[in-house]
UniProtKB/TrEMBL annotation, chain B:
Residues 254-378 form the Thiolase C-terminal domain. Residues 5-168 form the Thiolase N-terminal domain. This is Thiolase family protein. PANTHER family: ACETYL-COA C-ACETYLTRANSFERASE, NON-SPECIFIC LIPID-TRANSFER PROTEIN-LIKE 2. GO terms for molecular function: acyltransferase activity, transferring groups other than amino-acyl groups. Pfam families: Thiolase_C_1, Thiolase_N.
Length: 135, 381
């Protein structure tokens, strides 16, 4: 996994277009978290910004079968549909909460390869295409 | 070592939906505990209590009597009752007071809790994208546990089936009708793999305890039960908690494991010595996992234990003899003290139809709550 952690010069929370997930890493503890935090949650020391590759495997999951209370939930324009969510264990070691964008809820399996991306909302994960597996 | 603390009085109200307000329920539970101890409010020298959502405990003095006693409000999520109890114990051990009240109560609106992301230090997107739902956490924790340790959905159903059966034997329980494992499995998925009937519901209720020093206990009428240990812990790094945007890799730590170990160490005993226990069962999966986290079995052993009836009232390790949270509902501030109330009844041999046979001598209680807090007690007669 050499090169998995790429230091960034920008504030870890600043919106920046680019590839990868914005996380942070404590040089003292080697604890990597995502989304980024200002301080290491283990030792309280300063955390450096890091870009994570976003590839990993599904560690656990569930399905939100009913519409969450709104607000805060923003019901999609087409109405509520059950959606999957879970934790994706990234190559860097951290397990990141993400909505799972899968075609069929019955296909979800612990251990399935996933690619996590960050956008406007919470991280989202989709099944890794064959070329992305094992990177 | 610390001096003994004795529980001389225990009281609770029925749990469920109630016309009464949370504070009214609290007053009823306090008066029941005082009556049980055969004493009066004026004899109480200090009080600790709280609710999550139903008001300030110290305002109860307006109904109980303005005796001038110190009354500390506790607000500690699901550990509110446990934290009030620990505070009461410390008040006795420190010599601050010899007769102390612990009270917990709550009254929640219908439906799931609706936490706000900003209260948890999370971005607004966790709410707008639908991740601020507590049931998701419970589903995801047991999902992984089932994968790692071979627990089946049927075992989750058997836990809930037992809860409703025991609730039917408990006059103050909310859910008192039997529900079969098949009905539980078919009740509709809420957060996979957990179905609707596997969950407890937020509700209303109150519980209270009168605790005494050994000297004060000799002046009380109630049969005392010894509180051998009471421990509260918060999570360490590496635990899996509700509303976590990320969790660390590697083996999980467990605040329930930490709190139960601390309680057993303080009591100078171990899980193998316990005759009856109360384990937080927010849903079926929680009871299964807490059996192992509190040291009562190895990971995965639950599958065989539960199928064999080991956790039934007549089994080797009766768990949640009053139906637990699943049958009683979850008034957050009251649950921890309801658990202790039930163990007190069991150790006194006064649990009626749900009495554990063989005159149990030792009991254990465990609560767990967000954001990673646990309170455990060890009791004996």
């Amino acid at each position: 996994m050499a090169g998995a952690l790429i230091r960034m010069a920008t504030d870890p929370r600043s919106p920046a277009a680019g590839v990868g997930l914005r996380g942070s890493r404590c040089s003292g503890c080697a604890v990597t978290v995502c989304p980024a935090e200002d301080a290491c949650p283990r030792c309280g020391g300063p955390a450096d910004a890091a870009v994570l590759q976003g590839t990993g495997t599904l560690w656990t999951w569930t399905v939100q079968r009913y519409a969450p209370k709104s607000p805060p939930y923003r019901i999609p324009p087409d109405g509520f549909e059950p959606f999957a969510l879970g934790y994706v264990e990234l190559a860097e070691g951290v397990r990141v909460a993400a909505v799972l964008d899968v075609d069929d809820l019955d296909d979800i399996r612990i251990g399935m390869p996933l690619t996590v991306t960050a956008g406007d909302g919470v991280p989202r994960a989709r099944p890794a295409s064959p070329g992305e597996e094992g990177t | 070592m610390s001096a003994d603390v004795l529980i001389c009085g225990a009281g609770r109200t029925p749990f469920g939906r109630s016309e009464a307000g949370g504070r009214e329920l609290a007053v009823a539970a306090v008066n029941a505990a005082l009556t049980d101890a055969g004493t009066e409010w004026s004899r109480v020298r200090a009080a600790f209590g709280g609710s999550d959502n139903a008001g300030l405990a110290d305002t109860l003095v307006a109904r109980l009597g303005l005796t001038g006693l110190p009354f500390v409000n506790v607000k500690n999520g699901c550990a509110t009752g446990g934290s009030a109890l620990v505070s009461a114990v410390n008040a006795i051990r420190s010599g601050m007071a010899d007769v102390v009240l612990a009270v917990g109560f709550d009254k929640h609106p219908r439906g799931a809790f609706d936490p706000k992301p900003e209260d948890w230090g999370l971005g607004a997107e966790y709410g707008s994208d639908g991740l601020m739902v507590t049931t998701q956490f419970f589903g995801m924790k047991i999902q992984r546990y089932m994968h790692d340790h071979g627990i089946t959905p049927r075992t989750l159903a058997l836990v809930a089936e037992k809860a409703y059966r025991n609730g039917g034997l408990t006059p103050e329980a909310w859910r008192r009708g039997p529900v079969s494992a098949e009905e539980i499995l078919d009740s509709g998925m809420v957060s996979d793999p957990l179905t609707r009937y596997m969950f407890c519901s937020p509700g209303a209720g109150a519980a209270a305890l009168v605790l005494c020093s050994p000297e004060a206990a000799r002046t009380m009428e109630g049969t005392p039960v010894t509180l051998r240990a009471a421990a509260v812990r918060t999570r360490r790094f590496g635990s899996f908690e509700v509303f976590s945007p990320w969790i660390p890799g590697g083996p999980l730590t467990s605040v329930s494991r930490d709190a139960s170990a601390a309680a057993f160490e303080e009591a100078g005993t171990g899980p193998g010595d316990i005759d009856v226990c109360q384990l937080q069962d927010t849903e079926s999966g929680a009871e299964v996992m807490h059996m192992a986290e509190c040291g009562f079995c190895e990971d995965g052993e639950q599958e065989r234990m539960i199928a064999s009836g080991a956790t039934e009232i007549g089994g080797r390790l009766p768990v949640n003899t009053d139906g637990g949270c699943i049958a009683n509902g979850e008034p957050i501030g009251a649950s921890g003290l309801r658990q202790v109330y039930e163990i007190v009844q069991q150790l006194r041999g006064r649990a009626g139809e749900r009495q554990v046979p063989g005159e149990p001598r030792t009991g254990f209680t465990h609560v767990y709550g967000a954001p990673g807090v646990s309170a455990c007690t060890v009791l004996s007669r």
